[in-house]
Design a protein that fits this description.
The structure holds two protein chains of two kinds. Chain A is mostly helical. Chain A contains ten helices and no strands. The chains are: A mainly alpha, B alpha+beta.
Chain lengths: 192, 176
């Protein structure tokens, strides 16, 4: 996702507020991937990610002209909206880790694709266990790991998306990485 | 950065590259469908607003006409004669029965006779008339006592307003 507000985005939002379908499609195709992936990485459930993506773009449809560029870039705005929807859904849903154990889940399919080669299996296992560890983090830590490390946003952008200070992001990320490293070390010890 | 941190960062990079990359295609279709629905609703609401304004204008004119000083009653036959042309001289003879405007007969559109507005007979006789083309909501047909189904009430219809020399509306006709 681009980290800067482009002129094209502003024009698209103006057109979307008038019901322009082509503008909406251009905007959707530009931003659906990061929004969907963020929701999936935060929730671990494709169903929630789909619903959140839908909710985010429905909101854009209905309130495109309310967007204020002074309050942050469009990616930060979309991440912020997506984050609120995800947290709301997670509060309503059963614990997300059960979805990861579900062999029907999308992540399970992805992992199964690489089972032919031992190297892939090892890598997939590592990625899978790290995914579980990320999903097990408290939401406040999880969201900074997802945005900073998986979506590679800078601190300022993440602070804008999560509506908090840059220092808070930095300290949460530091703490989250420490928790993840600890979890990975514990898993390695168990494996040995 | 120690060895563990490096492993963690490598793992996170692997995680970033892993998993489905985009939302399913049906989501795009659903959202476009929703956008179309919202556009339809927005258009309908816009027309309702325009229709409400038009009705308000007609009602305002009607109320004003009701409160105007009473003058010797003209006949609606004057009105019908005046409908034929944009500006006409005062009627000198017995008016002809209502007919369609010759000007409109030459064109592709078909106009029906003018319907007198309520209490139009109380207004002064028409000395010269002006016809103004407007868009009215279908629901305004009900004011003329014509049946209009609810699902078509928000649609618009072209109409000609017949104004007298004093600018007051005397009649309306709907262009089909």
């Amino acid at each position: 996702m681009s980290n800067s507000l482009t002129n094209g985005d502003g024009d698209l939002l103006r057109l979307i507020s008038r019901g322009d379908e082509i503008a909406f499609l251009a905007f959707y195709r530009r931003y659906q991937r990061p929004v969907y992936r963020f929701a999936l990485q935060m929730s671990g459930q494709p169903e929630i990610a789909e619903e959140v993506t839908q909710d985010v773009f429905m909101l854009v449809m209905g309130s495109a002209k309310k967007y204020d560029p002074k309050r942050g870039s469009i990616p930060a705005y979309l991440y912020g909206v997506a984050r609120n929807f995800v947290l709301r859904r997670l509060e309503q849903e059963r614990p997300y880790l059960t979805a990861l154990d579900d062999p029907e889940s999308e992540y399970a399919d992805v992992a199964a694709d690489g089972q032919d080669a031992l190297a892939d299996l090892t890598r997939n296992e590592r990625v899978d266990s790290l995914r579980k560890a990320v999903l097990a983090l408290p939401p406040a830590y999880r969201e900074v790991v997802v945005l900073c490390d998986l979506h590679e946003l800078d601190y300022a952008e993440v602070a804008s998306a999560l509506d908090c200070a840059v220092g808070t992001i930095r300290s949460r990320l530091h703490r989250a990485r420490a928790l993840l490293a600890e979890k990975m070390r514990a898993e390695e010890r168990c494996a040995v | 950065m120690n060895d563990n941190d490096q492993k963690l960062m490598e793992g996170l990079r692997g995680l970033a590259a892993d998993g489905p990359r985009e939302a399913p295609a049906w989501l795009e279709e659903r959202l476009v469908g929703e956008l179309r629905r919202q556009s339809r609703v927005r258009r309908r609401n816009r027309w309702l607003g325009v229709g409400a304004l038009a009705i308000a204008a007609v009602l305002a004119v009607t109320v004003w006409v009701r409160t105007a000083p009473v003058v010797p009653a003209p006949t609606m036959a004057h009105l019908r004669t005046a409908a034929a042309v944009k500006t006409v001289e005062p009627p000198q003879t017995t008016p002809k029965p209502a007919v369609q405007s010759a000007a409109y007969e030459r064109g592709a559109e078909v106009a029906i006779n003018f319907y007198p507005l309520p209490d139009a007979d109380d207004l002064p006789p028409i000395e010269s008339a002006t016809i103004v083309r407007v868009q009215l909501p279908m629901s305004s047909l009900r004011l003329m006592g014509l049946p209009v189904s609810d699902d078509r009430a928000a649609e618009s219809i072209q109409a000609d307003m017949l104004l007298g020399q004093d600018g007051l509306a005397r009649g309306v006709r709907f262009v089909q």
